[in-house]
Amino acid sequence: MSHPHEDVPPVTTEVHDNSWSANLETPEHAEDPEMVVDQAIDAVEKTTVGNHVNLVSHADHGHPETYLYDPLEEAFGDTISLEYVQQCGCGGHVTRVHREA
Predict the structure, then answer these.
(1) How far, in Å, CA of 30 to CA of 39, rounded?
(2) Residue 35 belongs to a domain with what CATH number?
């Protein structure tokens, strides 16, 4: 069962002028991979140039390279760089997105 995006709080409501982490591994995220992509894009948009956001994604969706990297690269082009950091002990994944320009 998929939840409408408007029923789930945004991953952030502020612009981050520092490096930070976005939690995309709640039960709602596990049920809605489209929301994961949408909120990941929003998190990157709210990260200032010169900083990075760690996108912590749910294990249910597998490695983020299979569903997250392409939409991020389409949205931001060469203004970001992606770095897979690790798989968490809980099974989730951490992808670091650097804002280059």
Answers:
(1) 13
(2) 3.30.110.40
Helix, strand, coil shares of the chain, percent, nearest 5, are 40, 30, 35
Q: Does 24 map to a domain?
A: yes
Strands 20-24 vs 80-87: parallel, antiparallel or unpaired: unpaired
- The encoded tokens of residue 42 equal 């929003």
pTM for the whole thing?
Answer: 0.90
Residues of the chain falling short of pLDDT 50: 1-3
* Cα–Cα distance measured from residue 3 to residue 67, given in angstroms and rounded to the nearest whole number: 19
The number of distinct structural domains making up the chain is 1
Say which residue the tokens 């909120």 belong to. 39
Question: Is the separation of the CB atoms in 77 and 99 below 8 Å?
Answer: no
Q: Is the dihedral of CA 77, 81, 85, 90 positive or negative?
A: negative
In a domain, 35, yes or no: yes
CB atoms within 10 A of CB 44: 21
